[in-house]
Amino acid sequence: MRTPDMLRALRHRNYRLWAGADFLSVAGTWMQVLGVNWLLLSITGSATSLGFGLFLQSLPTLLLAFAGGSLADRLPARPLLLTTQALHGLLAAVLAAIALTGAGGVWPIYAVALLGGVVSALDGPALGRFGAEVVGSDDLPNALALGSVISSGGRILGMGAAGVLIPVAGTGALFALNALSFGVTIAAICAMRGGELHPLPRASAEKAGIAAGLRYIGGTRWLLVLLGLAFVLGALGRNYQVTMAAMSDGPLGAGAAGYGVLSVVFAAGAVAGGLYAASRPQLTFPVLFAAAAVTSVGQVFSGVMPGVLSFAVVLLPIAAGAVVLDTAVSTRAQLGTAAEMRGRVLAAQSMVGAASGAVGGPLLGMLCDTLGPRTALVGAGLVTSVATCAGAVLLARALGHRIRPAAAEALPYGLRPRAAAPAPAGARAAAGPGAGTGAPERPYPAALKADESSALSPVGR
Hints:
Layout: H1 13-44, H2 47-74, H3 77-101, H4 107-135, H5 140-169, H6 171-191, H7 210-218, H8 221-237, H9 240-249, H10 255-279, H11 285-302, H12 308-335, H13 342-371, H14 373-398, H15 425-431, H16 446-449, H17 452-455
Helix pairs in contact: 1-4, 1-5, 1-6, 2-4, 2-13, 3-4, 3-6, 4-13, 5-6, 5-10, 5-12, 8-13, 8-14, 9-10, 10-12, 11-12, 11-14, 13-14
């Protein structure tokens, strides 16, 4: 029986193992997140303690992600992941012991959160790199899209299970179950067939360092544009946990119950966005910028919606567009960069995500408090809309194309290749890829050339 194209990554046995383990691991992680929050609140009675715990968990990503990327590009993925997943499981078991014995107060919990952040910073790039080896480049976009659906489903399951288990079995049971979920991940990695993997080339010693990765990313202008766009939209357009709460408590007058309903709507939109992304044969730049435009313009409209129902209706496409945008950025960044740099590119993405959350959450909260939630949403949406148009123009220039005047108003759909007089065949061969084609001094990555001629047109494919 033929696998539907939307599920084509599941044709790989190794990916089926990976997806199943990932679903359980995400569910376990979200059980632990809610369990830690509840445990800290029960000990301290302070919401500030939760924020400090999140800070400790996020800080290592900003400091150590590039070191993790360098390790991922230098070392074999499977042994590295088996080690880090075992460490995650051990830390979860330690949390279970802390919760069951009640020893030490909050500082042991903070210590585990910090150590967990360190392990996550070191193994995050390796997880992304290994995921690409599981399916290969042809099915990577579909695997990334299905991964977003799996993550959304695992999050819903984990949060729901935590709500049921905390009053029945306590937080210690949540941490123990999460420890077991890492055992499932280890078993899945061990069960994969090595002959069906698609190994990526590892970096040589002189190209494996942090400095080499920074030079590569700094010299890849189109990638810098994507990362910059992801930061702006992540900071001002993606912290809906803040703005949804402010709208529910303020202008919408919906309270905690309304906030819960809107959170479910957002999760449903995220699943829909993941399914749409999975149905696409290619996640091209027009799809990426269209998703950015949907989320940005939708945010402006959400700020003027009069009630919970209308706000929820606008929230659905925003959530879907956010997932499509994330998946498209990750796909383009991974397929368009050198394979031996993949870990450090993924590290840069994770650092941008962590930085946007660290900046955007407090900033949006301050704007909601000072200007009101509606003004904050509208203002932030206008900024991200401008950033989307500017990103489209900058991307076209980075790739050596120009925006036609007639198409400029149609951004981000107006990116078309610029026609150029062909150079003599001998000159093109001597100059290498991109010569005589209007390409920048750094040729556009070969991994993207096969499909980006259509990706830069208004239609795409």
